[in-house]
Automatic annotation (TrEMBL):
InterPro entries: DNA-bd_dom_put_sf (IPR009061), MerR-type_HTH_dom (IPR000551), MerR_fam (IPR047057), Redox-sen_tscrpt-act_SoxR (IPR010211)
SMART domains, per the entry: HTH_MERR (SM00422)
Name assigned to this protein: Redox-sensitive transcriptional activator SoxR
Domain of life from the UniProt record: Bacteria
Region listing for Disordered, in residue ranges: 142-184
UniProt keyword Iron-sulfur present: yes
Gene name in the database record: soxR
Alphabetically ordered keywords of this record: 2Fe-2S, DNA-binding, Iron, Iron-sulfur, Metal-binding
Biased composition regions of type Low complexity, renumbered to the chain: 145-155
Domain HTH merR-type: 13-79
Length: 184
């Protein structure tokens, strides 16, 4: 019979939290070892998590699905207060510190979605547009990977391989780093 976390409970056991959060108990122990969540110990050395840990775990899982590194997740969670349930303003500070990085990630995903049927400068030369955008794999001279896809705005099939590029010729999502001191 599944463990049920009562809506009245202010704390949860590792099993209750894992079940309600939809993660394995080993994941919770890992998150705790990595400094992402905290628990208190009972006199019998059992973990007890405050109920607001559910939101932190949900945040961790969503961040991981977006590809955010654990170090960035840890930095963002460090913006949240200790000893009290985070308020909407606390969560807004976390959201703000990741805004630029998330916008870059969204732009990259949209670019991939919108340009995957075009030549992306990977060197395969298998699409008709490859002969126009990446004639004789000229983009390979710029470096490895999908050179046209790495540019702001994606491939530009109108200029046959003469797209503008950033200083390093690549666009990546940011590190997701937050300035813990600035938010406090």
């Amino acid at each position: 019979m599944p463990t049920q976390l009562s809506w009245k409970a202010k704390e949860a056991t590792v099993g209750e939290l894992a079940e309600r959060a939809g993660v394995a108990t080993s994941a919770l122990r890992f998150y705790e070892r990595e400094g992402l969540i905290r628990s208190r110990r009972t006199s019998g050395n059992q973990r007890r998590y405050s109920r607001d840990t559910l939101r932190r775990v949900a945040f961790i899982r969503a961040s991981q699905r977006l590809g955010m590194p654990l170090a960035s997740i840890r930095e963002a969670l460090a913006l949240l207060p200790e000893g009290r349930t985070p308020t909407p303003a606390d969560w807004a500070a976390v959201s703000e510190c990741w805004r630029d990085d998330l916008n870059q990630r969204i732009a990259l995903m949209e670019q991939l979605r919108d340009h995957l049927t075009d030549c992306i400068g990977c060197g395969c030369l298998s699409l008709t547009t490859c002969a126009l955008v990446n004639h004789h794999d000229r983009l390979g001279e710029e470096g490895p990977g999908a050179r046209a896809l790495a540019r702001p705005g994606g491939p530009d099939t109108s200029q046959a391989g003469e797209q503008q590029e950033s200083a390093d010729g690549d666009v990546r999502a940011g590190s997701g780093r937050c300035d813990v001191d600035a938010a406090g």
